[in-house]
Amino acid sequence: MSIAERPLIDVTSQRGSKLAGLAIRVLLIACSLVAVAATLGIILSLAFEAIRFFERVPVLDFLFGLEWSPQTAIRNDQVGAEGSFGAIPLVTGTLLISAIAMTVATPLGLASAIYLAEYAGKKTRGLIKPALEILAGIPTVVYGFFAALTIAPIIRLTGSELGLEVASESALAAGLAMGIMIVPLISSLSDDVINAVPQSLRDASYGLGATPSETIRKVVLPAALPGIASSLLLATSRAIGETMIVVMAAGLAANLTANPLAAVTTITVQIVALLTGDQEFDSAKTLSAFALGMLLFILTLLLNVAALHIVKHYREQYD
Amino acid sequence: MTEILQPSLPGLKRRHAAERRFQLYGKLAISLALGFLVVMIGVIGANSIGAFTQTQVALSIRFDERTIDPEGKREPDALAQANYGALVKASLRNAFPGVKGRRDKRKLFGLVSSDAEFTLQKKVIADPKLVGAIQKIWLVTSDDVDQLVKGNIDPSLPETSRRLSDREIGWIEQLRARGDIKRVTNTSFFTSGDSREPELAGILSALVGSALSLLVCFVLSFPIGILAAVYLEEFAPRSVWSDIIEININNLAAVPSIVFGLLGLAIFLNVFGLPRSTPLVGGMVLALMTLPTIIIASRASLRAVPPSIREAALALGASKVQTTFHHVTPLALPGMLTGAIVGMARALGDTAPLLMVGMVAFIVDVPKSIFEPATALPVQVFLWADSPERAFVEKTSAAIMVLLLFLVLMNLVAVVLRKKFERRF
Predict the structure, then answer these.
(1) Could you say which residues from 79 to 138 on chain A have a Cβ atom under 8 Å away from some Cβ of chain B?
(2) For chain B, domain boundaries
(3) Which residues of chain B register pLDDT less than 70?
(4) B204-421 has which CATH code?
(5) Is the pLDDT confidence value at A79 over 80?
(6) Which chain A residues have a beta carbon less than 8 Å from that of B352?
(7) What is the pLDDT of residue B405?
(8) Pairing of strands B53-62, A68-69
(9) Which of A41, A118, B164, B189 could cysteine-pair with B168, CB 3.0–4.6 Å?
């Protein structure tokens, strides 16, 4: 075939590449749907097993019951054969430990963020910010081990010096370790928000004679408040879903208490306790883990959505 | 002038003091957080040192032919099945002829690790000429002896509150005085699997389990992640659908890891019937968790490629697919890889989802494929932390140090990649 005879545009190869293009497009769409499938998978698997659980235990008993002692009857006439599946002690335990964690993490995280954003020089910032990020990168088993090995004995010793009764697996030990773990989450998110506050606001405040700290407290922080609130919500969500620290440092006993020195258990601890080791897949005991998982998923999802909502709707628009 | 300023001066002083206090709070908060980090790593690091050495005791073993090979044929089977424990016991009885009574004898035999007979077995199989000879052989001691030698058991405590009795400590002192006790580097920590006996427990099986899980995780999540990012960034029309996918990815990133474990248990294990406790399932769960991280990082990296590259390719007649895969994606690849490594580092440290899919089994053998039951490094940390023996504290700490080392290495690789391939357009 001479050059003149050859068609200018190779139609056959074009059709081929069109088909290939279509195939690639389908592949790409399929890949991006994997993430959607994962979410659907989570919701469906949790819902499906939770519904099977609620066929055995009424929803209201689960949501408002005050006693948690899951067990499977070995004989039919056994005492307490039913087991009780009241999630309230688990929820309060989870909230207690998260509250302790947030009490530690909020001042530390915010103060670090303010210092990094407003006072630290470029060099210090470049050193300290990654150093704080290390805290977030350390696996949570490490925090759990440290809490159980070092923090809990220190708290127990201090407690007995002061004449207080401290459980060997106190909520305080787990909460403290978790608090430190969350610091970088709050500090880096808040740091970004504070940096986003326009310089003109600060300049105006300085111009009126305010000191830097007055400017931060009265001008910068209020302006950054929605972002900070959202970072705190995300941190709380993280604390509620955290598993290994509480599995290793908090207890298994479902106590309904607000005493940080007592042993409490959490939703995640119970899920792990119910699903590790031998399990029969049809008992209320095993299925209850999925109901707890559903509860956890909904709680954290609500917090995440609220965090996004706050940022979207209450953010001050500058420029 | 001065008269007007005067009244505000005390107030100014107070305000400046408040300013200094405010700055101090910031410094204090940072020092507290970083101080905690240093103390935590310091305490665990100090605890871990012991795990890298091991105590051995020298016993003169008489390789008695009547016990090992009464028929004298030196057949490998006979040599392998002989009662080497008896040799160790005989040697201990010889070393301490004064020990009488069953309980005392059991304590005496307990000084040496249960591994000792296998050490002897291996020696004899390697060199059958040993049979009949008497040789001084260094054997691993039990964990209690090891802890005493390392100073973790305080002999000054009352006898009932420590794990070794006065008699046992007396024997160990005698052995020490004879120079028959030494500390050597514990290589078996890196070359053996888990064990119920702390002195024999190693991290190799957990390490291999982690590596296999991460391999599965990477093979699944990296291609899917970058292809999803390419679609969302380069092809997807702005529509409700792409918004839904985007919101969904962001939410998925914030789902607690244990929930992914529940998904793995309910779907991968119970619906698909994949083998429990295997790196295959563990890796799949980790892949789902890592996916949002990779997608988000890959999209950022694609966005950083300037439109001029795309326009140039399109202008030269490349199709959209060619533009994307020949020109844009290669430029974004280092950034994507960096994101993937950061995601994998997080996956390496994650424990909870692996507990849900049964990777908490007691694994002695090193897994050879992704279909064999395995455990992972952080899970091993969790399991050892739960064990009551004092000797497991140092094992746990050492496993944590190894885990942290790998995390540091992975992050370093990510940093280097970023530095090396970072391009400013």
Answers:
(1) 107-112, 114-116, 119, 128, 131-132, 134-135, 137-138
(2) 50-186, 204-421
(3) 1-9, 425
(4) 1.10.3720.10
(5) no
(6) 243-244, 247, 268, 272
(7) 95
(8) unpaired
(9) B164
